[in-house]
Amino acid sequence: MTAVTIPGLDQAPTDHQELLAWVREIAELTSPDRVVWADGTQREWAELTGKLVDAGTFVPLEKKPNSFWAASDPTDVARVEERTFICSVDPADSGPTNNWVEPAEMKATMTELYRGSMRGRTMYVIPFCMGPLTAEKPMLGVEITDSEYVVVSMHIMTRMGTRALELFGDGVPYVKALHSLGAPLAPGQDDVAWPCNDTKYITHFPEERTIWSFGSGYGGNALLGKKCYSLRIASVMARDEGWLAEHMLILKLTSPESKVYYIAAAFPSACGKTNLAMLQPTIPGWKVETLGDDIAWMRFGEDGRLYAVNPENGFFGVAPGTDYHTNPNAMRTIEKGNSLFTNVALTDDGDVWWEGMGEPPAHLTSWKKADWTPGSDEPSSHPNSRYCTPIEQCDIKAPEWDDPNGVPISAIFFGGRRATTVPLITESRDWQHGVFMGATLSSETTAAAVGQVGVVRRDPMAMLPFIGYHAGDYFQHWIDTGKGADADKLPKVFYVNWFRRGEDKRFLWPGFGENSRVLKWAVERIEGRAAARETPIGHVPTAEALDLSELGAPVEDVEASLAFDADEWRAELPLIEEWFAKIGDKVPTALRDELEALKQRLG
Ligand code: GTP
Ligand code: SPV
Ligand code: MN
Asked: How many CA atoms lie within 13 A of 313 on its CB side?
């Protein structure tokens, strides 16, 4: 049998036979017009962004250098949790929180979808590395995609191209990640600005460390190094190898005495990670620098402390609500250019605009590509619209953000979006209690995933859509992580809620830069200096224990944000029980003990 000839297929910049065989197999299945290996150069960026402008996918911005505006298909705007699958060999390994289909059946279904799915398009092969290239064991992957938007986004979000390919070798593990828009073009058929398919699958084969994605061009569904690899597949690797892959920002906090603390924080999607990671403190003498805004990989160092690395190379941040008041550091980062903006509004003079930026201009082009004026019924930007920008150009990046050894974590924050019940900050009693706080974390749903917004659900460790295996086993893994460690060296665990509301529905706590006051209290607790009152749910500061100097908000609001209400928490107990019932037999005994103890304390 003669091999199929596809231009570019035989011009690979590697002689890695196993990789070449996979690339050939996919090319033969998907039938692209040509194959291109992404090299990650500026020339490639210029060529592909040019191609996207010609296709009508991108509009170059007049006001920001080397930056582009894109509007997606209105149906392809967020992660699709309903269409996300963990196809473990044993369904029990996928657990009650994931969708599961038998792997062979899923492969058969998706193979038919992929057959010819790249016709009329270019198939790109993107070698990439999550985390520093200089890591002892670099975390490699290859994404095959037929989307130029994905290639240029991967330029920002990952270390990719030649510098990653150089790290590949015989027997060096890498994750295979296959992506197709599912929008083949017949000869002469005109393309659309945002090709995609109504049928979508975001599928993971955890034992094979393989990802198959079909039908969506949106970030979390298509940039497969991000949630698919760095959380769903990596959480399985982490379970097997004794580390943690978490949906966490990493920040560096320096006190007025020049003492450094690294803090990791897990909040569900669109609940404040990027904003906290780039926080500009309002209290004098304190400094925050950023290491990462979405994902942390953590493992114990030789000194027994937990060290965190950010696997990403860019920020894929929620645009609405971001401005010079809330997140000046993000604004300064995107101002430098080299950024992509998806589903925000376009101004008439070639800049981007979104809700939260202050007074809107008299006329905009909305994310739906329609005329928009301040009187319009709908927002100009989709609530999950995003900017995509390199960490490298963030003025407040910590110099050690790219250190393969990571940074030692002093505190872990879990947090959610709750209008009631959950105080501004609560310190856990110990690691096991902290794991209980994380495992029972609740939050109102947001626009970051397709579905209803504002519904309270349990989102354990902010990982509900990202745990690549059984949630009960994942909780046990967290418990075990603490058991093997020196208790004094473990991070202290806190539970925060920036989103509590007063009776008039207003946020009680001003948030954003003012959250520095909460960070200060947490590190003072670590130092044994700050006061707290003991409540049945943990240690909560009194208003006096927080530094409230020159805070604009009324002290009654701060007190209300810190309130512990036993009735509200008693009402929470059946919800936690229901959640544990869903997880079933695999809820660790340690967490059942914690629930019993909480019940006792609540009386
Ligand atoms: P993902 O990128 O989806 O994982 O989101 P994220 O967790 O990084 O959330 P982000 O920081 O982008 O914030 C999401 C939304 O929450 C934005 O609209 C912010 O303006 C808002 N937000 C962030 N921090 C605060 C805060 O301290 N208080 C209030 N009220 N809103 C906040
Ligand atoms: C999230 O939803 O948590 C995000 C955006 O960070 S996405 O890349 O779509 O996952
Ligand atoms: Mn996220």
From this structure: 20
User: 363, 388, 413 — which closes off a domain?
Assistant: 388
Last residue of a domain, one of 356, 388, 420: 388
118 confidence band (pLDDT: 50, 70, 90):
very high
- Does 388 participate in catalysis according to the annotation? no
Q: What percent of the chain has pLDDT over 70?
A: 100
* Residue of 210, 281, 291, 595 whose CA lies nearest to 433: 595
275 and 166 in one domain?
Answer: no
The response to whether residue 499 sits with its C-beta less than 6 Å from ligand 2 reads no
In this predicted structure, what is the pLDDT of residue 4? 75
Q: What is the distance between the alpha carbons of residues 31 and 101, in angstroms, rounded to a whole number?
A: 26
- The minimum-distance atom of ligand 1 relative to the CA of 294 is 4
Q: Check if 227 has its Cβ closer than 6 Å to any atom of ligand 2.
A: yes
Q: What is the CATH number of the domain that holds 339?
A: 2.170.8.10
Domain that holds residue 363: 313-388
| CATH number for the domain harbouring residue 110 | 3.40.449.10
From ligand 2's centre to the CA of 220, what distance in Å?
A: 5
Question: Do 587 and 574 have their domain in common?
Answer: yes
Q: Is 269 annotated as a binding residue?
A: yes
Whether residue 429 is contained in a domain is answered as yes
Residues 377 and 435 in one domain: no
Cβ neighbours for 5, distance < 8 A, ≥ 6 positions apart: none
User: Does the beta carbon of 320 lie inside 6 Å of ligand 1?
Assistant: yes
pLDDT tens digits, one per residue of 327-372: 999 999 999 999 999 999 999 999 999 999 999 999 999 999 999 9
Nearest ligand (C-alpha, residue 228): 2
Contact 249, 391 (CB under 8 A): no
Closest C-alpha to 129, from 1, 312, 274, 281:
312
Task: Please answer whether residues 583 and 96 qualify as being in contact, where contact means their C-beta atoms are separated by less than 8 angstroms.
Answer: yes
Local confidence band at 2 (pLDDT 50, 70, 90 cut-offs): low
If asked whether residues 21 and 157 sit together in one domain, one would say yes
Exposure b/e, 206-236, CB count within 10 A at least 16 = b: beebbbbbbbbbbbbbbbbbbbbbbbbbbbb
pTM for the full predicted model: 0.98
φ, ψ at 543 (rounded to 5°): -60, -35
The per-residue pLDDT for range 61-104, each reduced to its tens digit, is 999 999 999 999 999 999 999 999 999 999 999 999 999 999 99
Q: Given 87, 271, 388, 394, which residue is catalytic?
A: 271
Ligand 1 in reach of 275 Cβ (< 6 A) = yes
Task: Please report whether residue 584 resides in a domain.
Answer: yes
**What residues have a C-beta under 5 A from ligand 3, the ion?**
269, 294
Please report whether residue 61 resides in a domain.
no
Same domain, 478 and 376: no
- 96 burial (CB, 10 Å; 0-12 / 13-18 / 19+) is middle
Q: Is the ipTM of this complex over 0.90?
A: yes
**282 and 230 housed in the same domain:** no
Residue 434 forms part of a structural domain? yes
